[in-house]
């Protein structure tokens, strides 16, 4: 007999809020900081950008290979949506 997994989404959402405690929603984070915050490697975020998946990001340098930045508000939203789709 297999056990069904129960996921308490409110606990997950509360954990996400705690994870971002003290960060301004309007702040933007570099790739390594964003990766650490959401629990993946910087390489994973770079790969996701290339593949067009993962959290929304924006370029903060005019160069074609300019620096990527992740707004805190969009990282939070990305994690919330991922938690609710499990």
Radius of gyration from CA coordinates: 15 Å
Query: Which strand-content bin applies to the residues?
Result: 5-15%
Task: Tell me the major beta sheet.
Answer: 3 strands, antiparallel
Percent helix, as a range, is: 40-55%
Quote the CATH topology. Multidrug-efflux Transporter Regulator, Chain: A, Domain 2
- Residue windows where pLDDT falls under 50 for at least 5 positions: none
Number of structural domains: 1
Let me know the average pLDDT: 87
Number of strands: 3
Known CATH architecture? Orthogonal Bundle
Number of DSSP helical runs: 4
Structural class: mainly alpha
Order of strands side by side in the largest beta sheet? 1-3-2
What form results from the Cα inertia axes?
A: globular
CATH class: Mainly Alpha
Task: Write the SSE topology.
Blueprint: H1 9-19, E1 28-29, H2 31-38, H3 42-51, E2 58-59, E3 68-71, H4 72-84
Antiparallel strand pairs: 1-3, 2-3
Helix pairs in contact: 1-4, 2-3
Description:
The protein is mainly alpha-helical and about 90 residues long. It has one domain (about 25-85): Multidrug-efflux Transporter Regulator, Chain: A, Domain 2. The chain is about 50% helix and about 10% strand. It is built from 4 helices and 3 strands. It has helices at about 10-20, 30-40, 40-50, 70-85; strands spanning about 30, 60, 70. It has a 3-stranded antiparallel β-sheet. β2 and β3 form a beta hairpin. α1 (about 10-20) packs antiparallel against α4 (about 70-85) and α2 packs across α3 (about 40-50). The two termini are about 20 Å apart. The model has no long low-confidence stretch (mean pLDDT about 85).
């Amino acid at each position: 007999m297999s056990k069904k997994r129960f996921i308490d989404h409110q606990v997950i959402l509360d954990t996400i809020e705690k994870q971002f405690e003290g960060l301004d929603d309007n702040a933007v984070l570099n790739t390594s900081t964003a990766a650490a915050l959401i629990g993946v490697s910087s390489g994973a975020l770079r790969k996701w950008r290339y593949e067009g998946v993962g959290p929304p990001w924006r370029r903060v340098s005019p160069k074609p290979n300019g620096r990527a930045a992740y707004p805190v508000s969009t990282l939070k939203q990305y994690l919330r949506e991922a938690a609710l789709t499990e």
